[in-house]
Amino acid sequence: MLFHLDDANQGPNAWPERFILVADELSATTLAELPQDRLVGVVVRDGAANSHAAIMVRALGIPTVMGADIQPSVLHRRTLIVDGYRGELLVDPEPVLLQEYQRLISEEIELSRLAEDDVNLPAQLKSGERIKVMLNAGLSPEHEEKLGSRIDGIGLYRTEIPFMLQSGFPSEEEQVAQYQGMLQMFNDKPVTLRTLDVGADKQLPYMPISEENPCLGWRGIRITLDQPEIFLIQVRAMLAC
Known about the structure:
The protein is α/β, with parallel strands linked by helices and 241 residues long. The chain has 8 helices and 9 strands. Keywords: Kinase, Magnesium, Metal-binding, Pyruvate, Transferase.
């Protein structure tokens, strides 16, 4: 099922049980607000494969095609195949092609099931050298909590995600609660917190930034150096944990 994302405010009941999201653009903020247990595919017209949203949606294991040459409105209620491996969108495929992709999906599900048997084994080389497996976290707390026993810690916690879901800058107390929740979730394992990294394709709805070349402009540490109150509040919240 296809759901065409527009500028309307969508409540939780607006989303079908299973849907492919087709949109002109997709921000990390919008992605974080979607019901990820219902989202089975993503197609974006104006988007790059290395954008923040694309990286995040791939991390969720959702087939994605970015930069698709399509008009979202013409795909409503059409049968779609989103081939994330090839970066292809197939519209109204023939029955034989649909059956082939259904077979490939079944094979992938079986491979995932077989891999599940080994997921709790220690990560190590043939030489016996142990390798630490760290999680890139911040998007899906429920998913991250399930992985807690299988990983060695958090290699990067993206603190900008909670900022994106707020209507204004979170207070120091709100940030303390957020970071404490992450630290408690992983108990005695190492957690690396990254300070606020916004700008370019990661915009805060209450702090719009308009630049000709935002990827090389006012973003990340440049923003927090120019706005020290944002940086200091966040660092105090981290140290309080």
